Amino acid sequence: MTIVPLALPQYHYDIVIEPDCLPHLGGALRERGLGKKSPKVLLVSHPFLLHHYGSKLVDSLTGAGFVVSTLSLPPGERFKTANSVQKIYDAAQAHHLERSSLMIALGGGVIGDMTGFAAATWLRGIDFVQVPTSLLSMVDASIGGKTGINHPKGKNLIGAFHQPRLVWIDPLVLQTLPGREFRAAMAEVIKYGVIWDAELFKLLEGTRRLDQLRYIAPETLQEILTRCAQAKATIVMEDEKEKGRRALLNFGHTIGHGIETASRYKINHGEAVAIGMVLASQIAQRMGLWTEDCHDRLLNLVHKAQLPTAIPPSVPMDAICQALGSDKKIEGGKLRFILPTQIGQATIVDDISPDLVKEILTIGYTKN
Amino acid sequence: MTIVPLALPQYHYDIVIEPDCLPHLGGALRERGLGKKSPKVLLVSHPFLLHHYGSKLVDSLTGAGFVVSTLSLPPGERFKTANSVQKIYDAAQAHHLERSSLMIALGGGVIGDMTGFAAATWLRGIDFVQVPTSLLSMVDASIGGKTGINHPKGKNLIGAFHQPRLVWIDPLVLQTLPGREFRAAMAEVIKYGVIWDAELFKLLEGTRRLDQLRYIAPETLQEILTRCAQAKATIVMEDEKEKGRRALLNFGHTIGHGIETASRYKINHGEAVAIGMVLASQIAQRMGLWTEDCHDRLLNLVHKAQLPTAIPPSVPMDAICQALGSDKKIEGGKLRFILPTQIGQATIVDDISPDLVKEILTIGYTKN
């Protein structure tokens, strides 16, 4: 078992990583005094996950004395909407959730973000717990308290900072994760290697394949999950509300979000971030911040994860530019990029010229 | 001019009360460094208020270098919905509001709560300013950072704590406030007198009539507004997130909210609170916490404000009880009441028996 603590002035919580920990969640909540005043829990998930893991989790919770009701939402980014959050509110109301009740998100980033946002805004904020089931959510979305939903015109435009009270990671659930989603999440894993943790980068370089779970030894997976959680937790502790260094986590995300939105979410988050990292890496190279060798090493990892490195021709460039314009990473009309400087380090650059971005986007359609 | 400071660990802001201060808002924002990084402002209001005060405010803002767009929403509690907030999001998106942009609420509690909630959740939180135009909002809703909207099944079930950066109160705008709303707000003014400020209570006792603005001298009004703001600010500073003493502000609100919901908002907030205070006062008397003399003095003020003291027969008792059951003031199934102990003091009682409440509700239909 690995426990990564995340300490903020107002909150302190653990990120627990342990194979087969799902059946122990109920006890862990009790140990931590969660839901002490009210035993009511709303478990939010989607049909597939509830089928596979629902009873395990519900048994554990009821065994620990909680009264659980379950809400099943349709899976997928296109359901990360105000409408889905409304369904969580309705369930919270029907279940008479109180200020000291708990919401639990069993799912990937979409379920986690929505449930977190509902918890942030139900009765002006109640506790919630993240049980991430996707690799992407385990290494990124479930940690750090960013919650939210999409606006029809842009991703994550609506949201709140609301920290979970516990992040409960069971690597075994990755066995049911579709291959495409596993690969996509590798983009974020690679990201931590580039911007923060050179050791992680080398660990990934030393792993033969990154495109499927079965090629990665359990102890390597545990180390990858731990290093990612540590990186994320450290950055969040430095800068909870993204006023400074937390923006480093957006490496690959400026253009990535643009591509994701412009593709109408046909290209998933991780794939878009992979392309975004490659293009940001090219911008860094152009600006003399980052060597060709580093760029090639990054490209090599992206290839090993079987992730795209070029923008598919089906995504029109003007749609990407338009999405960039309404992206919240713009301050005073300028484009903000996170650019790598060496393996394990990156910097925030606030005044990248739109012309350079367009040039890189144009090249971005050709295979690297 | 009165300035009441409100200092919290993370935020510090002023509540400014000054006749004819509307045309000076732009300069005040600049002085306080608000909107420094982005000149974009979204002004949210409703048609009537924009007609009377919109150009004054917009002129002041544009004169100070802000780029203002205006959103007009329909007035009234029944529009305090997710749908209205969606319209604010749409306007924020269309106007390309950035993290450092500003929202301004020109209106009563409904506009203020919704705009505050939109600001709390747009890009995970941007700054906002309250320009309250109703007496109710001046003395209560605009101060203290409670924001939110109604759920079809209950008031304010969805929301966030998000402090404004400035509260800008111009008592002159009360001249266009409908009489019914002025009277309703007096319920909250009386509330502060009961739970917090015996001097205020006496000031109200010394005022001949409390039912219309024209009977209240400008200097008395200024003192009422100041004392209410001070009471609210002090309580919020002690307990921002309502984990303890802030609950005192809910005097009259437990039953009040129930009546408001059960009447489908035909009885407005202040009227419902007035009835709620009278009934809570009766509960306090029953429990020997509060004297008959104090009860009569409270009743006298409520009468002077021409506010109801009994539940109208049109509001069925079972509907009130049902609304009480889904009210967020319930912890562990028990009913929480704020009960007065002497003029200027109150206490929080967590375990009022539902039987006593039903008994008081039954009596509550007869004229006091």
Tally of contiguous helical segments of chain A = 13
Our Rg estimate of chain A from Cα atoms comes to: 20 Å
Taking pLDDT < 50 over at least 5 consecutive residues as the criterion, the unreliable ranges of chain A are none
Counting DSSP E segments of at least 2 residues, the number of strands of chain A comes to 11
How does this structure look, described?
The structure is a homodimer of 368-residue chains. With 368 residues, chain A is α/β, with parallel strands linked by helices. Chain A contains 13 helices and 11 strands. The first copy, chain A, has helices spanning 25-31, 47-63, 82-94, 109-121, 135-141, 179-195, 198-205, 218-238, 253-262, 269-286, 292-304, 317-325, 354-363; strands at residues 2-7, 12-17, 40-45, 67-72, 102-107, 127-132, 146-151, 154-161, 166-169, 335-342, 345-352. In chain A, helix 4 links the parallel strand 5 (102-107) and strand 6. In chain A, helix 6 (179-195) packs parallel to helix 10. The longest helix of chain A is centred in the middle third of the chain and has 21 residues, at 218-238. Chain A is globular and about 60 Å long. The N and C termini of chain A lie far apart (40 Å). The mean pLDDT of chain A is 94. The A-B interface holds A 37-38, 82, 86, 89-90, 92-93, 96, 98-100, 117, 120-125, 146, 148, 151, 153-154, 157-161, 241-242, 325-326, 328, 330-332 and B 37-38, 82, 86, 89-90, 92-93, 96, 98-100, 117, 120-125, 146, 148, 151, 153-154, 157-161, 241-242, 325-326, 328, 330-332.
